[in-house]
Amino acid sequence: MTAQLQREDWQTLTRPWTALLRHSRPAAGPFVSPQFQSTWWDVFGAGLELDLHAVRDEGEFIGVLPLARRDGDVAFIGDPEICDYMDLVAAPGRVDDVIGAFLEHLEESGARRADLRGLPEGSPTLTVLPPAARTRGWTVQAEQEAICPVVPLAADWDSYLDRLRTKYRHEVRRKLRNLLDGGATIALEVVEEPSELLERLPDFVRLMTDSRGDKAAFMTEQMDTFFRKLVSRLAPERLLRLYFLQIDGKRVAADLGLLQDGAVLLYNSGYDPAYRSLAVGIASKVFLVRDSIERGLSSLNFLRGAEEYKFQLGARPSAVTRLLLSR
Question: Which residue, among 224, 201, 226, has the nearest Cα to 40 in the 3D structure?
Answer without folding.
Answer: 226
